[in-house]
Sequence to fold (513 residues):
Amino acid sequence: MTASIEIGASVEGVQRLALKRANRHGLIAGATGTGKTVTLQVLAEQFAAAGCNVFAADIKGDLSGIAVPGEPTPAWASARAAEINLPLTPGAAAVTFWDVYGELGHPIRTTVWEMGPVLMARILDATSAQEGALTIAFRLADDWTKEGKPEGALLDLKDLRAILNYVAENGDTIGKQYGLVTPQTVATLQRKLLQLEMDGADHFFGEPAFKLQELLRERPDGKGTVNLLAAERLVQSPRLYSAFLLWLMSELWEELPEVGDPEKPKLVFFFDEAHLLFRDAPKELLTRVEQVVRLIRSKGVGVYFVTQSPADIPDTVLAQLGNRVQHALRAYTPSDQKAVRVAAQSFRANPGVDVAKEIQELAVGEALISTLDEKGAPTPVARTKVRPPNSQVGPVLPNIRTGMMAQNKEGRVYEKAIDPESAHEVLTRRAEQAAAAAQRAAEDEARAKEAARTPRSGNGGGAARKTAPTRTRSSSSRTTPLERQGGRVASGVLNTIARELMRGILGTPRRRR
Fold:
């Protein structure tokens, strides 16, 4: 059984990462263009070859080349392999492509309920008052679910909007039981939900929901599968991107059993553009990230953050990253110089390596590397030339990607979205029924008033009494509370219909059927 994977070679010898310590997490850092993506590709294919499943976000599309052999071998790769005496064997990893939008991979979805109020607040960039309103909406849905009511099902964004509308329209009742929510707060959240839909996020929420077992599926040949998330479009919505990956890590932590320190990790999770997770994140979210990173290693999962500088990662998280690969940093500004110092201080000292100096002199494809040895102690930092990957460097051709997707029976299960009855349908139907009942009551009352004003004919053969003409009153001059309530409900239903029509006319994204 393979005990370690090869990263590259230095003057001290081949630099390896012990599989037994791979769940102690890691960091791949470096300025743009220094070789981080190739290093990620090397680690991913080496982990897969050793029987570990991998999940990675493909930010630029370059990582998709791991799905095909590196033939013909580029001249630079052959030269590097010969230089460090680590021969190449052209080959490819088994790859499953995923995509929130269902364009460059199989759709990957979750429900609004599984995302939870904290991450939904993060996605919506909600204030504390707006996050409170979301929490109340989720609590209300939870209570309904416990009572067996179908309106508690929060599956997609329509359901969340419907419950928020219910909270706004029943503010007095909701406020007494859960807390006050102002109509202005709900209106602001509704606008943010609309913007989220226009950005295409409605593709991500719904059913069938993604099953974590897809990431842990074992292969007959004993090798691991590389699960690639096509993130070129997703990363343009940074909050959705970071919340999605954090949700995935949280779900893994909550659902996987404890395994301690296995001989190799069940799953290696690469979090590219990791600074997006921590930028402007509230303290509560940072605390949750720290807890997940600290505890998930005992579930057999290794998390590797990929970013430009170690300074992008909070110290409480950085302290838990035992395996470090540091590519070149450029110190042009005072903040850049601080980042160099942070990076230099994070390595175990090596008398033969001046980290602060060499970190600025590294060539493309070179890195300062320190990993945990078999006993869990960090190895001395070594200036290393990273080995080339055995797979193709650069994106895979579209027709090859499409062919691989067509052959993946497990992934194709998610291609057709389903929309079962949930909060949106139930609450909309209830509003329509209330509006219809109010309309019938108003009509009955109008007929009763009309009947009361109609004159009666005289009896006993006498002449009919003449009555003065009755002045017709405008129906809008005096209405009952029931009529006014019915009008508000009907208006809400009509507004909903109008919004649906307008959304279709303007061509904004809709959830695929």
Notes: The radius of gyration is 31 Å.
